[in-house]
Each structure stands twice: as structure tokens, then as C-alpha cells.
Amino acid sequence: MTPSLDTTAVTATSGSEDEASLNDAWLVERARHGDHAAFAVLVRRYERKLIRVLARLVRDPEHARDLAQETFWRVYSRLDRFDSGRRFGPWLFRVGVNLGLDQLRRNKSEPPPPASIDRSYDDGRAPFDPPDPDPRIQAELAQEVQFILAQMPVSYRTILVLRDLEGFSSSEVAAIVGRREATVRWRLSKAREKFRLIWERRQDAAQEAATDG
After folding, report:
1. What is the pLDDT of residues 105-118, one digit of tens each?
2. Dihedral angle, C-alpha 115, 120, 125, 129, nearest 10 °
3. 3-state class of 82 per DSSP?
4. Which one of 37, 141, 183, 205 has the fewest beta carbons within 10 angstroms of its own beta carbon?
5. Which of 139, 149, 125 is nearest to 58 (CA)?
6. Within 10 Å of residue 174's Cβ, how many Cβ atoms?
7. How does pLDDT run across 180-211, given as a tens digit for each residue?
8. What is the overall mean pLDDT for the chain?
């Protein structure tokens, strides 16, 4: 069982200073010297997004939380080996995504998908959100998106989750998945096209079924 990092009882490192103003590199350096409060700030900063990414990969919110805790524990235990010239966020997510992908390789059967789609493209256009605010339609669309993602190769799904659903930049995705940025852009283009084709095919099938009915 992965040891638990108790961060809920830790106070902010800098007292009255706003956590948002604390630099990741400074917090990592403090944590390296045994400042648990500094690492707690990093956990609070990245935990929700990490759980969301992992949930979209392994399609099990509870297991995603366990994987997130294991990710933070592994990162904490390896802080002395972290290259301070690199950014902490992409390194953290690379550890987490690798754990998630390892889990998928061990377990081919996946549970029903969660319904959580809430990111947008760089131009502000939501890639998968419908214009109708009805939460039932939102939930149905989210399930459809997750269903289609499940049909795609894991490498494509990972890129779409990180880039389109979570809004990481291409350079950040490259750092997380350990590929060149040009490779990420190429794979993203292929993944979007494959997603579009599956989406249109399913929409056409649903329209035909409705017409026949």
C-alpha cells in the first residue's frame, strides 16, 4: 500500500504570503530540505488537475485518486534527483501519466466512463461542449466523448486528453509523454482526425436509427 502524504494539516509555507505567488522551483528546493509545507503547496496546486487527467485515462475516478497519491509519493521520494533546470509540472504529470498507462497495460477491461468535459481550445471554443446548457445533454455528450476516446489507441487518447481536454501546450505535452514537440503535433492532428471520423460515423448511425424508428 502506498504511504499517505498528509497535506491537509500543513499550513502554507510563507504565512501571509499568497500561495499563488510562490514559484514551483522555490517550493521544490524547500521541499528538498525537508519543508513538508512547501510540498503541500505543490500538492494543492496540481492535485485536482492530476486526478482529472488520470480519471480520463483510466476511466475510474476512485482509482485515479489512488494513482494521484502514488504519483505525489513517488515525486516526493525522488526530489533529490529532480533536475532543477526543468519545470516541475510536466515532470509531475509525466510520472502520473506513466503510472496511468502502466495500469491500462495491466488491465485491458475498463469501467464505464465518467462524465467530465470542461476544457477549451486556444481560441476559446469548447471542443466537446454543446451550446445547450441542459446538464443532461452535457452529461450525454461527455459520455459519448469518453466512449469515443476509449475506442482510440492509448497514445492518441493521451494526447487528446492532455492537449484538448486539459489545455497543456504542445511543448508541455511533449515533456509529459517524452516525445519531440513535432511528434506531438503530428500525433495530435492524427488523433483529432480519427476522433472526428468516429464521431461523425456514430452521429450518422444514430440519425439513421432515429429515422428508421
Report:
1. 887 654 443 333 33
2. 0
3. coil
4. 205
5. 149
6. 19
7. 999 999 999 999 999 999 998 988 887 877 77
8. 80
SS3 content of the chain, % helix, strand, coil (to 5): 65, 0, 35
- What would the pLDDT profile of 80-107 be if each residue is shown by its tens digit? 988 888 899 999 999 999 999 998 888 7
DSSP string, 128-196: S--S---HHHHHHHHHHHHHHHHHS-HHHHHHHIIIIIS---HHHHHHHHT--HHHHHHHHHHHHHHHH
Residue 104's nearest CA partner among 143, 65, 157, 52 is 157
Characterise 22 by phi-psi region: left (phi > 0), alpha (psi -120 to 50), beta (else).
beta
In degrees and rounded to multiples of 5, residue 124 shows phi and psi of 90, -5
